[in-house]
Amino acid sequence: MDHVQLARSLFGSSMAFHIIFATLGVGLPVMIIAAEVLFHIRKDSDYATMAMRWTKGFAILLGVAIPSGTIVGVMLALLWPGFMEIVGQVIALPFQIEIWAFFLEALFMSIYVYAADRLKPWMRIVSVIFVSVGATASAVLITDAHAWMNTPRGFTFKDGVISSVDPWAAVFNPSFYTTAMHVALSGFMTGAFAVASIAAWKLLKRGIDPREAAYHRKGLMLALIIGGVMSLATAFNGHGTAQMLQTYEPEKLAAAEGLFETQAYAPLSIGGIVDEERQEVRGGIEIPWALSFLAGNSFDTVVKGLNEFPRENWPPLFVHTLFNLMVILGSLLILMSFGALIYWWRSKKPLPKWMLRTLMLSGPMSLIGIETGWIFSCSARQPWTIYHIQRTSDAATSASNLGTLFVLFIGLYVLLMCVTILVMWSYFKRNPVSRDLAAMNQGA
Amino acid sequence: MSDSSLGILIIWVFVFVYSVLGSIDFGAGFWSMVFAGQKGIKAADIANRYLSPTWKVTNVFLVLLVVAFVGFFPFAMPMLSSLLVVPVSLVLLLLALRSTFMVYSQMSSRFVPQLRIVSGITGLLIPGLLITVLPVTLGGFVELRDGHLYVLTAELLTSRTLYAHLGFGVASELFLSAVFLADYAREAEDREAYRIYRMIAVTIGPLTLLTGMLAAVAMHPEAQWIVERMKENWIWFALSGISFVVGFSALWWKGKGGWTGVPRAAVVLIIIQYGLASFGYGSAHLPYLIYPHLTVEQGFTNHAMFVSLLIGYIVSTLVLVPVFIWFWLLFLKDKRYLKP
Ligand code: HDD
Ligand code: HEM
Ligand code: HEM
């Protein structure tokens, strides 16, 4: 591999690692707020127990989210100096503002965790709301930089020189709103489904104590409601994101759908492999006219195909699969969450085992959706780092010894993943729900 | 003042703030490891009680420093990246291990010893590695090849100046953190822990001066320019020396309630000491970021971005100050937290 490819691998895998913890860091605080608020409305101490236990899990995850974020933040500067040179001149603001969001989150997280016993109940809720604001703002602001890479604005670029910089025009670039919405909503849904997975898994245990089962059922219900609503919103908004691609980044949409010829009444292909030679998607399911409708809300919308663009500017064609995975997982999650909720309301009975088993998968599915979505978005921008402004090879560092670093960092991520699972497992093993529930009952 | 001077001044402030907070943070992690095994002595407790709520905030200052540097000096990045990728990546690796293991050692009593050792030792290595960047910026260890800077690794690793800097960095870290923890123990009214940290501070204090002098004496021949400049700026170093002497003596002043030493005065004066010295050093370093290849002016961003960034910093500082004050009251002042 040459150094550009090594830089891409090193940065991409570091991002893929950070995003797991970061997304849960965006999603879990919302669940904690919901539990805290429900506790105050219903006066049911089970919700206080949930808030407490989720906070513990969240604190463990932050132990990795923060250093891994520090890694990607610094690596971005070191591995992509050419990119940072332009970023520093045009889109430095979201990175700077993000620092406040980090401060907000870090300060209020410590206050919520270590000063909980000294705070009034309403102050606890305010603190955890600020944690959530900080986390969501971090995600939105970094996504702003990412959106700007897709739709760069706020400067004039001539002969490699940047001039007439307008920092705020860069911040409010055209894809910012939809993209930021999409990232925030998908983060909220991932937090909810992560909780749903664990609750479903616990409910599947043989001979579970009825008191504990009641506790987990409340958690599952709450998670499914939030997860269901958020996944529906994510899908609607994702539709808006796809239309944004049609306007601003047609190559990306064409690659996502494996469309070669520009056409009206374009079909939507699901699954299959994009074959450049045969100029079609092999083995996929084709829904006639659907792509045109998705792209412009009418069947006669003209969708641009890959052949419209010079070959050297095509994104890699495997991105079709990544895009499909994200959309299919999103649709399945909507079905699963609403299916379970409707069953529950109609029958008033506990969910059957098979349903719990599928719900157990919802958290990992959601995370895979996040991963494929991001890798799609970054890879389908290739060969550009800044769309139609800077190629990836011009953005990369010239440092040559990245191979060893790549191996070291992969080792680090594997190690941290294992240690995190071990610590989570040992913590919740030593502090079972039954004990917390009993303690709450005594306190009450 | 020109835009770029103001920019580098802001960066200096961030570097200084992070050096102090980072030293205290990493040092506290180290002491928490050292005293972990000893039953009945609360020195490790005090260190942990400080670290638990603060390490995240300290870490954000590190990120702030990097982001601010890239924001103000984007044109410096192409030259710097090849120079910094390897050492900084190593720092990042250690930092990830340390933060994670420190958080986990508070969560899982089963793995505490192993986790603490990792977080303690990495806490010693990180500041050491970070400070080795200084001699590299002074000249003699870098070479310019088609627009990119590269370190002459072998030459650096066999130089005296590297080890002098290393000694200075580690001694300063341990000294600052010990003085700070002495003050923290004083606030918590924990006499035992206070006695230990005061002892350490008294022992290491003179060592920091010694290693500091060594670092100045052992400069690379090509870095003699900065020695000359530092001599011109002698006033800052003289003031810094006075601040040290007074601050150090504060460890023997008579405090209220029969305590030996007034650690609050010591902490403040010693931080001022480092502030003065690093300002003197920093102004001697100008206008070079990397001597003689890269100056502050060459790296600087455009005016429009600079103004937006400044406004950003002013607004964010105003918004965050009340939260910082509340944080300070909850974790550094409140007796209910300090003395459970
Ligand atoms: C659980 C996660 C999840 C789910 C279920 C979906 N998405 Fe998504 N999607 C993301 C998580 C995500 C993401 C990880 O957050 C991305 C990556 C970059 C971004 O802005 O958001 C993304 C990007 C992304 C993009 C590319 C934007 C760009 O490159 O600028 C499009 C067009 C869509 N999504 C469309 C959809 C549609 C039509 C969905 C229908 C169900 C959908 N997404 C579900
Ligand atoms: C969409 C993707 C991302 C999301 C949702 C996200 C979210 C988060 C969250 C929630 C945290 C924890 C914040 C805290 O507690 O302080 C975090 C940390 C961090 N992230 Fe990300 N992040 C994303 C991508 C990135 C990228 C691309 C970068 C680098 C350019 C980055 C840089 C950082 C840094 C530097 C930290 C550590 C902050 C600290 O020290 O507290 N993140 N991120
Ligand atoms: C959080 C989840 C993310 C993941 C999993 C991810 C993944 C990747 C991958 C796999 C690559 C290599 C692409 C290729 O060369 O084919 C890449 C490149 C890159 N990404 Fe992302 N990315 C994420 C978010 C972001 C964000 C939020 C930003 C913006 C601040 C960003 C900026 C970049 C840059 C600058 C490159 C290198 C240049 C390029 O290849 O275009 N990434 N990312």
From TrEMBL, chain A:
GO cellular component: cytochrome complex; plasma membrane
Keyword Transport attributed: yes
Principal localisation: membrane
Chain ranges passing through the membrane: 15-39, 60-83, 95-115, 122-142, 176-199, 220-238, 317-344, 356-376, 405-428
Subcellular location: Cell membrane
Pfam family, one: Cyt_bd_oxida_I
Keyword Zinc attached: no
PANTHER family: CYTOCHROME BD MENAQUINOL OXIDASE SUBUNIT I-RELATED, CYTOCHROME D UBIQUINOL OXIDASE
Protein's recorded name: Cytochrome ubiquinol oxidase subunit I
From TrEMBL, chain B:
Pfam families: Cyt_bd_oxida_II
Transmembrane segments: 6-36, 57-77, 83-105, 117-142, 162-184, 196-219, 234-253, 265-284, 304-331
Lipid bilayer topology: Multi-pass membrane protein
Alphabetical UniProt keywords: Cell membrane, Membrane, Transmembrane, Transmembrane helix
Domain of life, per lineage: Bacteria
InterPro entries cross-referenced by the UniProt entry: Cyt-d_oxidase_su2 (IPR003317)
A GO term from the CC aspect: plasma membrane
Keyword Secreted part of the UniProt annotation: no
Major location (coarse): membrane
Subcellular location: Cell membrane
Family classification: Belongs to the cytochrome ubiquinol oxidase subunit 2 family.
Name of the molecule in the record: Cytochrome D ubiquinol oxidase subunit II
The species this protein was found in: Paenibacillus herberti
